[in-house]
Amino acid sequence: MSTDTGIDPAVAETSASKGVETMPFAKALNAGMRAAMENDPRVLLMGEDIGRLGGVFRVTEHLQRDFGEQRVLDTPLAESGIVGTAIGLAMAGFRPVCEIQFDGFVFPAFDQITTQLAKITNRHEGAISMPVVIRIPYGGHIGAVEHHQESPEAYFTHTPGLRVVSPSTPNDAHWMIQEAIGSNDPVIFMEPKSRYWAKGEVDLSASAVQLHSSRIVRRGSDVTLVGHGAMVATLLQAAALAEAEGTSCEVVDLRSLSPVDYGPLLDSVRSTGRMIYAQEAPGFTSLGSEVAATVMERAFYALEAPVLRVSGYDAPFPPAKLEGTYLPDPDRILEAVDRALAY
Hints:
This protein is α/β, with parallel strands linked by helices.
């Protein structure tokens, strides 16, 4: 099993009869890309240090060894060049997957992404597809500094023509990366880097998850907590603490940031009457702002309190020793729960 999937036997506990393996988030991504490359010779990986090194987070470990330098390309330190080359490869019939080493370094490629990649299909009235995936490790909790701990997802959700997703579990990482690679539209694949080492079960025999579907990960009746990426784990911690105090919280993992699957979210809000959106990004004109406005438009008469947001502060990401103050934690979420219940 380990030979076929590339999963280190030291970190994989196999339940072969169920087709389920327990593995870290990073290994689940690695196995997902491996499967995509095995199934389609047009799939290419490209990025800084992704080949011999296997990426700074080892997400692409051993893939160059097994698929060769023609399909796993170490590129120069030139993000605009990486994405520009991927656009040309997509036009030539390939399905490139780009890795941006850290979130804050995506901006040299921002022009290529927003003015070319996002618009080419529409510009040519659908005659040219852009099956390009851009993987971006993002978010805090690893004790780094600005450019290495940022949450730029709202820049991309604001851009028509891009699909934006963010898995929170190894199982979703494994399946969503394969669906992203299979998409004929460009996909910004936001990877919460603090989850790379988090283990979870991956059902290798299951059908793929729906790339643009939200899901309820914990049932509750008093307040709906919503988030994406690493924030989902924080919401679950807050829900467990709230339960000990007698408050029942439902937790929704958004998974797809553009488009947003509002169905399960609106059903939950109509049941609980209260909603809190938590995110690591600054709150001003953020994804949480958009989701809060939409929920208040579409479920206004079910709400018992305004939709509240818990965000990173509207300031540049701070030095590492202050990240615990900057990033939302269970206490800040529980304070919002108390405010929602007080209405």
